[in-house]
Amino acid sequence: DHAPVVLEESDDEKIRPMLDEEDEEEYKLYQAKISEEIAEAAKIKAKLLLEQSNYTNTSQSVSNAKKEGEQPNKRPDSLNIDSLLRLFKSDFFDSWIGISYLFRYTSPGVHDYLCNQLYTMPDEDIEFYLIELCTMLVHSRFSSTALEKFILDKCKQSVHFALLVNWLFCSSIVGTTPVAQTSEALQSKCEIAAVNGTLDQTQVSSLLELDHCNESASDLREMQSQGTLRTYSVVSENAGTPIMPSSKPHAEKPIMKTRSESEPSLTSLRDSFDSITSRALEKLDRCDYFYKIIHFVEDLGKISDMLRTVPVQFRQKALVREMKKVNQSFHAGIYLPLWEANANHYCILRLAAEDVIVLKSRERVPFILLFEAVSSDECCSSHTVHQIAKSCAETIREHNEESAKKTEENQSKNAQNDTESTTNSDENETPDNEQEQKQEDTEDTTTKVCVEAKPLPADDSEPNYKNSPFGEPFAKKQERIRATSPYGSMEGWHLRSVIIKYGDDCKQEYLALQLIGQFKKIFTAANLPLYVRPYRILVNSPDSGIIETITDAISIDGLKKFYSTERQVTLREHFLKFYVDPDSRAYKLAVRNFVESLAGYSIVCYLLQIKDRHNGNILIDSEGHLVHIDFGFMLTNSPGSINAENVPFKFTQEYMELMGGPNGSMFSYFKGLMRCGYLEVRKHSEKIISLVEIMSIDNTMPCFAGAQNAAELLRERFNLTMTEGQVDIFLDTIIEQSYDSWRTRYYDRFQYMTNNILF
């Protein structure tokens, strides 16, 4: 009944010749043995891969979960090695993927591979994710030392990175915890790497008794302060013999013995000595430059701390006096690594002591510091910035000597003229040629200064800006200081402004601004006109930082106090006063800037749950943009731990009034921007969430100190399962919830009653 079974010959049987029974049996045993060896080798290889990588195949993890009676993960956190390699070698691989997978997978194999990829990433990307790399390292997540080696290599390569890494490690040294001990050890290694640079860590030659190539940074620092750091002299041209290094100023030359033919020639000895000497001097220059910047920042923090003991009414004068003292012993040529690694490097010439400003604070004394600087052609991350600084210092020294010489000559001429005038009264009528020449030079210098005009308002004359709530425009201030500066004629001269903040942990502020910077990248890549302003910040220690100043801006609280009328001025009234004509292009452009910044910060404040949004923490600039500052409460923490501002974002009645009401075109524009921006950031939600996940391992930050999972709550706010239609309904709902919320009104009133912050 059954169909006959047809047996087909296998390919092996077709190829293999006919064998007798004995040979056939032997052949089968041979084949079986080979199969066993192949299977055993495959098992050993799989076992080794699992031990080295801790990865499991997705199907294997599901089957194991079924055996153990557990629910398989719907979203597995691991991939097999082949899949990872395909991802890492694909065109989709970028810096963000590298950093996020470096955090997710801690096995030595993939960790080393990804750390090697870090060397190929641009400096601006490494700088952007530097706090994540340092945080992962100080929390000892990896058994491999590849990440530590990479960070120390960056410190050797660039003083810019060495300073940033040094301060980030320093900010984690709190108490005697294992993290603090690890951070202290890494900070010491960072200093050694920064000082040594590209020098070899081992003794290069036995010619010299001591060349300091193996000294630690702390030893070099102590030797430098004690004056025991050995100096090196060039080869003596007369005797043709190298002069040995010595800490004594009049050390005797060593007696050269007769060389045999087997000894190296004098030329090779001289070349070797010259090489070692130049490299040692290079190391000393880096050491000097590195520690001058460290000491300068420490001195600024001490001044801010000292001002806390000064009565409030005398703090401004005390600050000016202290800045003048700093100028007297200032090391020209240093800089602050506050701006991007790929930006042009600059050298600080001197501090603008008369223009420093003490900021209002209840417990601390932050202040605005302005300094004159000159730009160079090198980028900040260049390995030669210390040489540029040395050259700049020489130029400044020569400039000061020439100025002093001219001053002495002018004084002697004036004294001679005064003597002659007593004998000849007719000479008093002679015109002062020097004064005329000085006036002509001043006019020429002023003419050469090219400063961009402030876009808004169009009329930027002196009477207007003196009566402006924004005060003197930064461009005008730069022009004024340059006209009176002895270095104003130098090419590349410019003015910079920073805020010195002492007594606050700025690490959470750093994280908030990094996240806002990520939002800005997403908006810019999608060509969306949403505006956010992620200003730069340096974290110098657990309780200090340096912040980039937002120029030509004032807090909304300060804006309302500036007009000082019996009734508080609304934002619309300010726009009418400042831009005058509501039909003018300047007014309409300012309102549009306001709406674009309001939409951008509304999305950011909702997703990151940024709180404490009173009018002292919201700035408005001269172009109409809103800029949020002070991010001490975000993600999971709130003022007083009661979450009084339990609304998606701040959206007051005066915001709506400025946009022309709920039926106005600007409000429709605002809702359209909210929709486009929210949908766009949802596409890149992991770029935001991954940064929060990595930084959440540092539970010293207030936003991670609670029991709540900040990353998971953030993921929920992205509403990734919603359709676009559902997103539209959701956005309308949160806008309605936020508009003129009683919670916002009462929190503003609370701040007014307790801190006199107007609303």
Using DSSP, what is the number of strands?
Answer: 9
Distance between the termini: 96 Å
Low-confidence region ranges = 1-17, 49-78, 199-217, 229-262, 426-463
Radius of gyration from CA coordinates: 34 Å
- The DSSP helix count reads 28
Let me know the largest β-sheet.
Answer: 6 strands, antiparallel
Mean pLDDT over the residues: 78
> What structural category characterises the helix and strand content?
alpha+beta
Any idea of the CATH topology of the domain at 551-755?
A: Phosphatidylinositol 3-kinase Catalytic Subunit, Chain A, Domain 5
CATH class of the domain at 551-755: Mainly Alpha
Shape: globular
Quickly give the CATH architecture of the domain at 551-755: Orthogonal Bundle
* CATH level-four homologous superfamily name of the domain at 551-755: Phosphatidylinositol 3-/4-kinase, catalytic domain
Our estimate of the beta-strand percent is: 5-15%
Keywords: Kinase, Transferase
InterPro entries: ARM-type_fold (IPR016024), Kinase-like_dom_sf (IPR011009), PI3/4_kinase (IPR015433), PI3/4_kinase_cat_dom (IPR000403), PI3/4_kinase_cat_sf (IPR036940), PI3/4_kinase_CS (IPR018936), PI3K_accessory_dom (IPR001263), PI3K_accessory_sf (IPR042236)
Region (Disordered): 241-261, 399-447
Enzyme class: transferase
Can you describe this structure in just a few lines?
With 759 residues, the protein is α+β, with helices and mostly antiparallel strands.
How would you sum up this structure, described in words?
- By secondary structure, this protein is an alpha+beta fold.
- Among the domains are: 1-67 and 78-93, no CATH class; 94-196, Alpha Horseshoe (Serine Threonine Protein Phosphatase 5, Tetratricopeptide repeat); 551-755, Phosphatidylinositol 3-kinase Catalytic Subunit, Chain A, Domain 5 (Orthogonal Bundle).
- It has helices at residues 11-15, 21-53, 58-67, 81-88, 95-104, 108-118, 123-128, 130-138, 146-157, 159-171, 178-196, 217-226, 266-306, 315-328, 385-423, 433-448, 462-466, 474-484, 507-525, 556-563, 571-579, 585-608, 653-658, 665-683, 685-695, 710-717, 724-738, 742-755; strands at 344-351, 357-358, 367-379, 493-502, 537-541, 544-548, 553-555, 618-621, 626-628.
- β8 (618-621) and β9 (626-628) form a beta hairpin.
- The longest helix is centred in the middle third of the chain and has 41 residues, at 266-306.
- Keywords: Kinase, Transferase.
- It catalyses: a 1,2-diacyl-sn-glycero-3-phospho-(1D-myo-inositol) + ATP = a 1,2-diacyl-sn-glycero-3-phospho-(1D-myo-inositol 4-phosphate) + ADP + H(+).
- It comes from Vannella robusta.
